[in-house]
Amino acid sequence: ETDLDLGHYERFIDENLTKLHNVTTGQIYGSVIEQERRGAYLGGTVQVIPHITNEIKDRIKQVALASAADVCIIEVGGTVGDIESLPFLEAIRQFKHDVGDDHVMYVHLTLVPHLGAPDELKTKPTQHSVRELRAIGISPDAIICRAEFPLTQDIKEKIALFCDVKRSAVVQSRDAQSIYQVPLNLEAEGLAELVCEKFKFIDRQLDLEDWRSMVRRIARPKEAVRVALVGKYVELKDAYISINEALYHAGVAQNTAVEIMRIDSETLEERGLEVLDDVHGVLVAPGFGARGIKGKLAAIRHAREAGVPFLGICYGMQLACVEFARNVCGLENAHTREVEPETPHPVIDFMENQRNLQVMGGTMRLGAYPCTLVPGSLAQRMYGRTEISERHRHRFEFNNAYTEAFERKGMVFSGHYRAADLVEIIELPSHPWFVGTQAHPEFKSRPTRPSPLYAGFIEACTAYAQRRRAGSELTRERSA
To answer: Does residue 51 have an active-site annotation?
Structure first.
């Protein structure tokens, strides 16, 4: 688990980040206390300065050296003045002293609110925020102003004067239709030139044409599909954000606008399946536990029987196996041990190394694992190769004791982790497009390089929508 911003950084800079890239207060204090217990400080008094601040700086250096990056972007969360962020800000202040002024650039992000009654933008919050920051010992080199409306030249001059930065260092970041428009807006404002000037970078070669093309496709799609995202955390806007973005990436690549209908699996149990009548694809989201499971199983059965494109992610794949076991294989009361430990048919079971764990925290199967795809399978055709790698986060797996029973009824296990004989991808060749994966391919999806599984899913949704439209038009012609 990590801050949602980390996913946005991955998508925008196209880098796969690790646990080293997310530093929390708990990690820092835990490490310092552990070192003190080991005697690393030789019995000295442990203090915020220098021990906590040094640990923060060491974490930053560790990431920079490990990645051999030209530039490290360090985001300090929170608001200037918050007690929680003070050690981090002090560490950042010291960093310039440690590595030199030419190697550190402070960029301060502020809000310039718009007051409706007088119809004006107010700069006071920015001025006060910078004053607080300078009191800590940090003077920003550039100020990015989040605003609903454009900043006038007078406002920029005012901020530059009272915050002691160059006029060109006051950069506006207006609200945009798409978050992927923001880098282009910041480029137009000259932010990258400021960075290059500060760090003395020369011969900057920049080609944003692929990104501009992507943004144009977002603004002018040629097709539109509606996808049902069935989960139990849908009331939280930020839940499933990586899935949302992966669907958008796949849609943009195919000039298709993707409308996501977030459907609470619990309410689906009560309302019935009519809400799925107008969708062009069903995606059952990951999750844990028994709550909402009946709604998810009903959505999976509907997609399978009605020929609606289906994608099951992690728990969604596991429940697709449960539904198939019950309604196709005839295994009455088949279930996952996560929900029903005493089920007579545990088609989803604990992995062997998970059975006797007493402490659950941090023990799931996490991170990227290789997967071998069956040649000629739908999954292999989508990926275009037989060896892939995707990220994971789970504790349960398909029970291989049921492989033969499933295969007799037409299911294909098209992806495997060979080292532990784990099923990674399932599919139904008799269905227009029915795929489940134990992985989280959305974690590797990028704006200009969508996940192959999500791209295939949206392509199938588009084809399904076109078939439905053609059928509706034919019906109208016959009626006329």
So the answer is: no
